[in-house]
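Researcher: I've got a protein sequence and the SMILES for pyridoxal-5'-phosphate. Could you write out the 3D structure of the bound complex as structure tokens? I'd like something to compare against our soaking experiments later this week.
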Amino acid sequence: MPEIHFNKKKGSQLKLFTPGPVDVPKRILDEMAKPNDTHRSNPYREMHLLVEEGLKKVLYTSNDCLIFTSSATGIMEACVRNLLKDDEKGLFLSIGAFGDRWHQIGEGNGKNSIKEGVEWGQAIKANLVNDLFEKDNYDVVFVQANETSTGVYNPLEQIVPIMKDHNALVCVDATSSMAGVKVEVDKLGIDVCLASVQKCFTIPPGLAVCSISQAAIDKSKEVKNRGYYFDFLELLKKNKVHETPNTPPIPQIRALAAQLDYILNEEGLKNRFDRHTKLAEFTRKWAAEQGFEMFSEKGYESNTVSTIRNNIGIDIGKMVSTLMERGYKIVNGYGDLKNKTFRIGHMGEITLKELEKMLDVLKDIISEMK
Ligand SMILES: Cc1ncc(COP(=O)(O)O)c(C=O)c1O
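Model: Sure. Here is the predicted complex with pyridoxal-5'-phosphate in place.
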């Protein structure tokens, strides 16, 4: 049985199949343990530039890429504060818990925040977006790529161009898919594409990144009360000289620079995206073999996290804790979906072999419980 309490000496002994933070390989942990110069030094600037260049490749963009000392929620708040004027309308397209959270951030910042969405488990389709823009005008749209609570991936290729045709700025939360699923920022015209690093990038938490378009930069210049810590214009000013305005988590940035090199030059982007597709397909097939249905709408299932419906009425809490005793961690459903669903994260550096091994153990546990 693994140590499932704080293990001061060895660290966690669990293998994480979670939708973030994810299992981090030793080569990345070793990278984080290396000493660094300060954030106002040439070695830092070289490293920061490597991250900017790597992110541009991962996101298929020539837009500026920024590094934030926060998790993804910080950039979600930054989008609201920097891009939406007080007399404008923000459209928050929610398909789950994280879409709802973005809307809450809009309201919490006193912005005119309109939430629209579909039943949890479904994706946002082109006809809904067309209908919304026919009835009203929105200045900025906020939407998830991958909704981690429901395991649904929105069809960005279909819906973003409609928003752009209506001259809206488009912010995409790609937290649980960036570097695991292909998003072509420039082709789609996404203005801000954001993520934290503790998911598909496979870095311990503490850092978030985004691309930002010239249109979003120009808009920021017109928006008052952008705040201080997450002011896009201050971040951009320092980013031009490959620095951040304040002290960033330098070990995470070192690890991200190394990981971007690994992703782009060792595994290769296509192989990485294909691996995530295979992991998801394998998980869905396994779930069906155990008699489970997917919670996510067919054709829109996530490649990075599988949200599985508890249609066989199993005690999910017990299933998760028994699996933990055997060395693996998956998670219960998010918020209202607790016990109605469970989630298997298959993002980051997970291999098909590792996934197969964990699912074999989980299969035995389910058989014992049935
Ligand atoms: C889709 C999505 N958006 C936003 C967040 C919030 O990210 P963070 O915890 O890095 O702020 C998460 C976290 O799981 C997420 O999955």
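Model: The mean pLDDT is 97. The radius of gyration is 20 Å.
Researcher: Great, I'll pass this along to the crystallography team.
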